[in-house]
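Lecture 7, part B: from sequences to assemblies.

Below are the input chains for today's worked example.
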Amino acid sequence: MSQTENIVEVRDLKKHFPVHKSFLSRLLSGRQLFVRAVDGVSFTIRRGEVFGLAGESGSGKTTVGRLVLSLEEPTEGEILVDGQALGQLPPEMLRRERRRMQVVFQDPLASLNPRMSIGDGIGHGVRIHLIPDMLADGEISASEVHAKTREIVEDMMEHVGLTPADILYDKYPHQLSGGQRQRAVIARALVIKPELVLADEPIAMADVSVRALLLDLMIRLKDEFNLTYLYITHDLATAKYICDRIGIMYLGKIAEIGDLEAVYSNPVHPYTEALLAAVPVPDPTYRRSKPLPKGEIPDPINPPPGCRFHPRCPIAQDVCKQEEPEMLPVDDATDHMAACHLRTGAYRHLDPTRSNGTGDS
Amino acid sequence: MEQQKDVLLSLRDLSVQYKTRAGNVDAVSNVTMDVRRGEVLGLVGESGCGKSTLGKAIMRLIQRPGRITAGEIVFDDVDLMTLADEEMRNLRGQRIAMIFQDPMTSLNPVQRIIDHFVETVQAHDASAARELASMRAEEIIESLRITSDRLDDYPHQLSGGMRQRVMIGLGMALDANLIIADEATTSLDVLVEAQFLELMRELVRQLGLTVMLITHNIGIVAELADRVAVMYAGKIIELGDVYEVFGNPQHPYTQGLLQSVPNIKIDEQDLYKMEGSPPDLISPPTGCRFHPRCPQGMDVCAAVEPTLSPSKPEHYTACWLHEPIPEGYTGQPLQMVAVDQTGAS
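Predicted structure of the full complex, as C-alpha cells:
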C-alpha cells in the first residue's frame, strides 16, 4: 500500500450510542435517545508524529481512538488510513490491516492474559501475523516455528527493557511490577511491526517515578521503529513531553487543535485556557491566576445548544448560546485552529477579554 | 518532636503489618509525626508506600489480615489505641472524618442525600431532631456550593464533584476536627478537581479545618498543603514545611520524585528517570529502604537505618547524607551491584 503523508484522516466523524431504556419508558416517551459521544470530529495524523487527543472524561477521546482502529463502527463520517476507508474492507482484509495498528491501554493487568506467560502473550500476535507469512515464504520450516517465535519475542523484550528476557519470558503477569507489565503490553503491540499505535492513557496507572521511564521508552521506540502514535490522555502535563500536535476535545467535539507548542503557549479557546490553568503545578509558590469555569461537563445525551462550552464559559455571549462555532484558523501562518465565536469566529469584537488596539488578523 | 505547636494528632512509632501467605508485610513501620491544628498536611508517596494504610490506621480501620502492631495514636490528648471499640466508633465521623477516592462506595445508593445527613447526625446524637439535622444539612450543602434542593436527590443524580463535596459535608455535619482525605480528588476531572481544591482551601481558612491529604499527586500537595510528609516503603523519609521540602528537598528520593513530575509551567524540563521500583515489603532492604535505588548510596546506608531527624527547624529528613555517619562506616559510595531489575532497564 502506498505511503501517504497523512497516515490517518478523520472527516466529520460521529458516533452516537443508543441509550437503552425499558420497554415501558420507550412506549411512554416514544423517542430513542442517543449519547452523542463523538459528534463531528475531523483531524489528520501525520506519519511519524505523536498526535494527542486530550480532554476530560466523557469528552469522547477514547471513542475516537476506538473508531480509528475500527473497533467501533462510526455513525457517520469517514476514517481513511493511508488513504483507504477501513469501513469498506471485507473482514479478512480488515484483519490484515489491523496488523498495522496496535493498541496500548491504561491497565496492563487487564490487558494481559493472567494465564499466559509474558513470552506467550507477546508471541501471540507473532504466531498469528508473522509466522504464517514466514512459513509461506519458506523463510522458516514448521519445526523452527517455536524457536523463531521465541527469538522474535525475546528480541522485542530487550528493546523495551524487559531484561533478562530469557527469564522474564516464562513469568506470569502477576509476577511482574506495574512498570514491567506496561513494558510487556508495549512489547506485544510493537512485536508485529505496526505503523500506528493507539496509546490510550498508557501511563496513567504507573507511579510517578515509573512514568518518566515509560514516556522515555515510548519516544525511543517511536524513533527506532518509525511509529506514529495516537496518544489519548486526560493529563496535559505529560502530553507535553510526548505530543507533537494535540487536539483538545470537549463533549464530542474538538475545541482546539494545533502544534502542541502553539496550543500550550497560546491557548485560544476558553476551554483550553481553563484546562491548562487547572492542571496542578508541583510548585507551592505558584498560584493560579485565571478563574475556573463553573460546573461540570454536561450530559452528552442533551448537549447544550450553540457552543457546547457556553454554560461554563467565563466569556460566553448570546451568540454562543445560539450558533455553533466553526473550526477556524487562529492565524495564517500555522495550522492552529479553534472553534470559538469570540476568538476565531466572526464575533471577535464581542470578546470581553480582547485588549484595545489589537486589530483583527 | 515538636511540642511547641498546637498538635491535634500525634503518631508515635506506629506500625502496621499485614499477614500474607508469602510472609508478613510491614506496610507502615515506626511512623512518628504530628498533625497540627488548622493545618493541611500532605502525605505523598507512590502506590504501596503505606500512605493509605496509615490513614486507615489513624481511624483504627485496619482489617484482618492487617493489624496495628505497635505505637500510639494520640488524638486530642487521648491515645486512640486505648479506646474501646464503642468509644472508637463514636469518634469516627464525629471527630475524625474520612473521604475516599470513590464517593459512590461511601454513599448509600438507595438513600437520599438529606437522609445521609440525618442519619449521620442521629447516629452520634440519637435525640437530635430530624428538622434540626435538615436545617444543618441545608446550611452545609450551600456552603459547599450545592443548592439545597439537591438534598432530595440520590447519590447517582449528583455529579462526581458534588458527591465528593457531600462527603466533606457529612464530616462537617458533626464538626469533625480532622478530615482525612485519601486520594479524594483522584477520580475527578482536572477542572472539577481544581474547583474542589479551591473550596477546600476556603473551608480550611474559614472553619479552621485540619486536613490530612493523602495523595500520589505532588501538584495537589503543592497547591493545598502547609506541610508535607513523604513516604517511601512504609516509612516517612522527609517531613517539613511545603515551601522548604519542595524548594530544598533533602532526601534523594524526594529529589528524584519532585524532578520526575511533569510541570506544565516549565518549558523544556527534563524528567528525572528513577531507576528500579519500590521494594517488596515482605523482605525490605536493610538499612535505608531506598538504598538499592539511591544514586548517592553509601556503605552505611545498606547497613544502618537513618532516623527522621531535623536538618533545619521545620525540616526533617531520614538520610545519612544529613546525619553524622556512625563509627565503623566510611561513607564510601555503595557499589551498585545489586540494582533491582524490576520496572527499569
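Note for the exam: The first strand of chain B starts at residue 7 and ends at 20. Keep this in mind when comparing with the next example.
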